[in-house]
Amino acid sequence: MKTNLDRIVKDIEELSKFNSTPGRGLTRFSFTEEDRQARNYIKRELEKLDLYVYEDAAGTVFGRMKDYPVEMPSIMVGSHFDSVKNGGNFDGPAGIAMGLEVMRSLVENNVKTAYPVEFVGMIEEEGGRFGGGVFGSRAMTVGVTLEELKANCDSDGISMAEAMASFGLEPEKISSAKRSPDEIRAFIELHIEQGPVLEKENLDVGLVEYIVGIAEYRIGIKGRPDHAGTTPMNLRKDALIAASELVCQIEELALSQGDGTVATVGAMDVFPGAANIVPGEVELTVDIRSRNQDCIDGVVAGIKRSLKDKADSRGLAWEMRELLNVTPVTMSEKILNTMQEKADEGGIGYKKMTSGAGHDAMIMASMVDSGLVFVPSRDGRSHCPEEWTDYDQLQKGIELIYHTILGIGEV
Ligand code: HGY
Ligand code: MN
Ligand code: MN
Ligand code: MN
C-alpha cells in the first residue's frame, strides 16, 4: 500500500465533525460555518504538503503541485464537501479523503508524475441549500452566471450571491472560475456507490462507464386560497389537488419511458398551509434521470402537457423553472482502461458500472478526460445517517486512483 489508512480515517472523522445537525445525520450546507470549518481543515492538510493552495470565485479549494510550469495542465483529483440535509459522512468526503491522501502519498514518495497533480474540493454539488447542484464543476466548465447566483435562494430567501458575498467570496467575479480545457489534463473522482451492487457482488470498486442525465425543475402551481368551510367544491381553485394528480402522473410518465428512467418529487410546500384554508399555492421539485436523453425529454414534455391541462380545466396558473439539465455522459475510455489495468495489476476486484447518481465528474467529463471510481456502500444506503463504507474498502479505491495517476503520464 502506498497510502496511509490512519490518515484516511482521520479525514473522514474530522470532516464529519463539521455538521449543523449532530445526532441527526450530517448536514453541511454551502457558505455556512460548517463549510468554513471543513474548508479550513482541507486547506491545513494541503498546506502541510507545500502545494499552491487557492480558491476560485466559486469557493472551490485547490492544491496544486508547485514544481511544474504554470501553463502545464493538471490532473485534478477530489470531489465535493457539501452534503444533503441529515445525510451521511461519506458522500463527498470519501473523494476528499482520496484527493488529500493521493497528494500526501505522491509528495511523501517523491513521485514525479507526468503532469502536476492538483487536489480539488468543490461545494454545492448536492444543491442542498440552493437547488440545482454540481455548482463548483459547472463554474469550472460550462460557467455559471451572476444572474443564476441572484436567482437561486435558500429556504430563508437568501440568494447564492448574498451567501457567497457574506462568506467572503466575490460572486460578481464568478465567470473567472471558468477554466479552458487545456488547463486540465484529467479529472478523477472517487465516490461511494450509493447503491447495493458492489456489496452484493463482493467487489472492491466500480469503474464508472456512464453517468445518467439529470433534469431538475421547481414547479409552482397557483390557485386561490379560500375558506375551507364556506367555499363549495365546484368553485375552488385548489392548487394541492392539481399538484397531487401531477405527482401520480410523474410516476406513470417515468414508468412508461423504460431505459431505467426514474423521476422523483422530493419536496413539496403548500401555502398558506393551514387545515382550514383551501391551498392557494404549491411548490414542488421534480428530479428526472435516465441514461437515455429522449426518455428525460419525454417525461418533461408529459409534465408540461399535464400542467397545461390542469391550468385550463381548473383555472390555475403554473410555472416550471429549470434547476439543472445535464445530458447522459460517457466517461473517458483511456482513463477507464488505465484503471482496469491498474486494478488487474493490484488484484482489485471491479466491474464497469453506470451511475444513477449525479456527480461532479459528469460535469467535468463534458470538458476533459474524466474518471469516476465507486467504493461499496453498506446495504446500498446513502443520503442518510446509515451511510457507511469500510475504511479498508475506501483505501483500495484510493490506491487504485494513486496508481492510475502514475499511469496517466503514459496515456
Ligand atoms: O443527487 C445526486 O445524484 C448526487 O448525490 N448529488
Ligand atoms: Mn456526492
Ligand atoms: Mn449526494
Ligand atoms: Mn457527486
From TrEMBL:
Membership in a protein family: Belongs to the peptidase M20 family.
Co-factor binding details: Binds 2 Zn(2+) ions per subunit.
GO function terms (MF aspect): hydrolase activity, acting on carbon-nitrogen (but not peptide) bonds, in linear amidines; metal ion binding
InterPro entries for this protein: Amidase_Cbmase (IPR010158), Bact_exopeptidase_dim_dom (IPR036264), Peptidase_M20 (IPR002933), Peptidase_M20_dimer (IPR011650)
Chain ranges of the Peptidase M20 dimerisation domain: 213-311
Cofactor(s), names only, from the UniProt record: Zn(2+)
Ligand binding (Zn(2+) 1): 80, 91, 191
Domain of life: Bacteria
PANTHER family linked to this entry: ALLANTOATE AMIDOHYDROLASE (PTHR32494:SF5), ALLANTOATE DEIMINASE-RELATED (PTHR32494)
Protein name, as recorded: Allantoate deiminase
Residues that coordinate or bind Zn(2+) 2: 91, 126, 383
Organism for this UniProt entry: Dethiosulfatibacter aminovorans DSM 17477
Keyword Hydrolase attached: yes
Keywords: Hydrolase, Metal-binding, Zinc
Pfam families registered for this protein in UniProt: M20_dimer, Peptidase_M20
